[in-house]
Specification:
Number of strands of chain B: 4
Strand content of chain B: 15-25%
Strand content of chain A: under 5%
Number of strands of chain A: 0
Distance between the termini of chain A: 26 Å
Radius of gyration of chain B: 24 Å
Number of domains of chain A: 1
Helix content of chain A: over 70%
Order of helices and strands of chain A: HHHH
Shape of chain A: elongated
Helix content of chain B: 40-55%
Structural class of chain A: mainly alpha
Largest sheet of chain A: none
Radius of gyration of chain A: 22 Å
Shape of chain B: rod-shaped
Number of helices of chain A: 4
Largest interface: A-B, 38 and 42 residues
Oligomer: heterodimer
Structural class of chain B: alpha+beta
Chain lengths: 122, 146
């Protein structure tokens, strides 16, 4: 019988992966904020952002929305720095909360394990 | 045994990649902002200078910031003279005046520098916030299982 599976289950692995990916995201956000003024920096973005950009490009290729797209792009560049900081900082706060909640889950899981190992005394 | 491995692997992955990376990234960004503040201070202090000490024309400076491709950290690649338009001011008592009594001064605006200053401060604050959040995350993770 697989005791490991009974005791640990999938939860530890899942939480570990979650914390790992969240802290990777934290690194990327830190880089985006740090390099906001660099000339040669390409922003790290996640899949959803890239998909949105590709969709907008595809629409502008069809011709009808091409002019509007350019105007939008210019506006975006002008407001870029100000809004980018705000966006990244809010993403950072969200990410922070996520990591905290993951680690609390992990803590409570460990508490349960300790309870079991010490036969209800720990 | 597997639990031990998980914990060891977790600690390894935690120390290997991320928190210190974040801290160093925001540290180098804060260094860059400090250098920028220096340059802004110079620009404001020299706002009505016409010549440098060795007689050459004085220009305001601007900072060129670039990203290190390997580590994704920003650094100051160069500090360059910023070309501006020239103002012609009638001031015959000035030793730098030409034969008609005109002095040529760079058309520097104080407001530009002040806007730059505000932006720089805001960026510095943002990087400090990132630093703090990385620190608190690290502390949360270190208290895991207590």
């Amino acid at each position: 019988m697989d005791f490991d599976g009974v005791i640990y289950g999938q939860t530890f692995d899942n939480l570990e992966n979650a914390i790992h990916s969240a802290s990777m995201r934290q690194t990327k956000i830190a880089q985006n904020i740090a390099n906001i003024e660099s000339d040669n920096y390409q922003k790290n973005s996640n899949f959803a952002d890239v998909l949105e950009t590709a969709k907008t490009k595809q629409e502008s290729k069809n011709g009808a929305t091409a002019v509007r797209f350019n105007a939008k792009q210019e506006l975006e560049n002008a407001q870029n720095k100000q809004t980018l900081i705000d966006n990244e900082l809010s993403k950072l706060a969200e990410n922070n909360l996520k990591i905290t909640s993951y680690s609390q889950l992990l803590s409570s899981k460990l508490k349960i394990l300790r309870k079991v190992v010490t036969l209800g005394k720990g | 045994m597997r639990g031990l491995l998980i914990i060891v692997g977790f600690i390894f992955s935690f120390s290997y990649s991320d928190v210190f990376d974040v801290i160093q990234t925001s540290e180098s960004a804060m260094n860059v902002q400090q250098k920028k503040l220096n340059v802004i201070a110079e620009n404001i202090a020299n706002i009505s200078s016409t010549k440098t000490k060795d007689g050459a024309d004085y220009f305001q400076k601007s900072v060129i910031i670039k990203t290190d491709r390997k580590t994704n950290r920003p650094y100051v690649s160069s500090i360059e003279a910023r070309p501006t338009t020239v103002m012609k001011i009638y001031d015959p008592t000035n030793p730098d005046a030409d034969e008609n009594g005109y002095v040529y001064e760079a058309d520097n605006s104080l407001s530009n520098e002040l806007v730059d200053l505000a932006m720089t401060r805001r960026l510095y604050d943002a990087n400090a916030a990132v630093f703090n959040s990385a620190k608190s995350v690290a502390q949360t993770l270190m208290n895991l299982g207590k």
